[in-house]
Amino acid sequence: MSVFVIAILLAVLAGIIFTLIGLISGSDETAILVPSTLIVVLLGAPPEAVFAFFMSAILAKHLTHAIPTALMGVPGDTLAAPMLEHANFMRRIGLPHIALRKMISGGIIGAFIALPVALLFAVFLSQFGTFFQENAGIIFTCAAILIGYFSKGRWVSILLIVPLALVIQGLNLVSSTILGSGLSISFFLGIAIGPLLTDLLIATSRSARPLIERTKPNEYKLAPEQKSWSGYFPNPFKVLTKKQASAVGGTSFLSSLTFALSPVGMTSLMGELIGSRIKGQYKKSTTSLATMNGVTESTYVAETIIPLVAFGIPLSPVAIGPAQALFNAPPVFTTEPLHNLHTMMEPLDFLIYGLIGLVIASVIAYPFSMNYARKATVFVLKRINQEAIIGMFIGIVCLLAFYEGGLVGITVTFAMAMVGGMLNRFLGVGVGVQFMIFYGSSWIISTLIGL
């Protein structure tokens, strides 16, 4: 079977799976995308097909995350949180379906703008790739300090860089002593599922359980579906006004060049920037929602492609989180020595297979979201058990950790998840900071402490 056919099949698979996952409110991108992409990599898929799978997954996920956000007032994932204020206004005036259409249409436009823009910028930056690769340790450490400063924890995130690096290297030394070689997948799986595992641990603790207990079920009121177009696949440029399409295009272009900034921060910033220039709450909310969802797509696409094509090491919040497995999935992909999509694919390959992923996800997720959003939401609320989904991903994580290091790998994964998750939930030490510390931990311990 040719690489092209495999890429199409995997993109279709990702489009279907992540279209459905996006309907589940609160589904974390890192905890879902990292193990899913790792499975595809470790099963031996060609690098081009892996990239098409990932592009399809992120677009599908971020199109359907608009459904719980707009219709239920619950963020579909972390990136949807900045949109809640405008989405809730549209729900209060009885027009959540309008909000949903604007968000989804903005998202699909943003993704297709970001791919060529980010790729061109990455090719320009690739002339500096050798410098970044040779100084990866200190760059990751500086990045950890920078991301930590702008995280919720701020100073505590910075203060804990060296102690957490020591914990990581200590666990790695123990695992190396037992197995004869160090672990990698187990560590970043642990960081990825840390927040999720923390909630499960809190639920089993009698003293901590009141933090997450609910006294009654949540109630949601869904507006009836109203279709204002003919056919199955509406034109996103007709859903948006000319001014809204221009706003989405401009902000998506700008956000495609800011690969080092937080996607959540860029989403909020661009939404506020556009909204502040518009009079009338209805126009402000609809335009802001279209813009913000466009930026969620453009930042994810750009922050995956730019570090991957230009440097080969994860130097963006998306690269060190959800896109982690494209850079480092031993023994298939590694950053030391550099052997991943950066060395296996040409810029033209990224364009072709990126387009395959985006087009297929668009064909699956966009019309589905526009035509069946309410029915799908009702089905998920009534029939899908969120705890079962969480359990499924915990099972996938255990499988991958066992593949790398047996019971030692599983133990390291859950030890890392427990430490990282507690730091994230109670001290605000974000997942991005933890990933940067993981990558810089060897340099930190050997250079700063001398061990």
UniProtKB/TrEMBL annotation:
Keywords recorded for this protein, A-Z: Membrane, Transmembrane, Transmembrane helix
Domain DUF112 stretches: 9-426
Transmembrane segments annotated in the record for this chain: 6-26, 38-60, 66-84, 104-125, 131-151, 158-179, 185-204, 350-368, 388-414, 426-449
Name recorded for this polypeptide: DUF112 domain-containing protein
Superkingdom of this protein's organism: Bacteria
InterPro entries, sorted: DUF112_TM
